[in-house]
Request: fold
Amino acid sequence: MAGNRGTDVTAFRGTGASEIALRAVAARFSVGVAESLTGGALAVALAGAPGAADWFKGAVVAYQSAVKQGVLGVKSEQVVSAQCAAEMASGAKDVLGADLTMATTGVAGPGRLEDQAPGTVFIAAQFGDDESVRELHLSGPPDVVVADTITSVIELALELVKAEFERVEAADARGNGAHKAR
Reply:
């Protein structure tokens, strides 16, 4: 992320972090992240959302492969991969004890990594028993790739949260009040 040292963190406002905050407070769930190519910028976006001290557990910035493997338990040999993103999200859940986790890995640029072009990104989110992983092909300079990655991973996490709450509402409508969202 050396090319992103000048990134303006205000660029991450409006990424959906406020919606994560509202839902986390209302449903009392916690959030944690594991980051590689975003280098802590996802944590900055979340920590700047309302009431973060009540729901944001923290972040593991695992830029080097050894940190991904040693701290997050990543087994994937390819760090620019869907498997790595999923393992990072799972590792964040284990390390941070968060209910909702997000992970980012990929190539912000300007050069290639693991024969992957700049803008090749993998994001993952886990909430409860649900997990979703996506491959993105973004364009622009590294700071734009980082900003677009943050927006995308928060949107992915919100999809999981909304799906869980829809299941709970459907169960409640059937009279099965035993189901409860996190």
About this structure: The first strand starts at residue 31 and ends at 35. The chain is about 40% helix and 20% strand. Residues 141 and 182 are 38 Å apart (CA to CA).
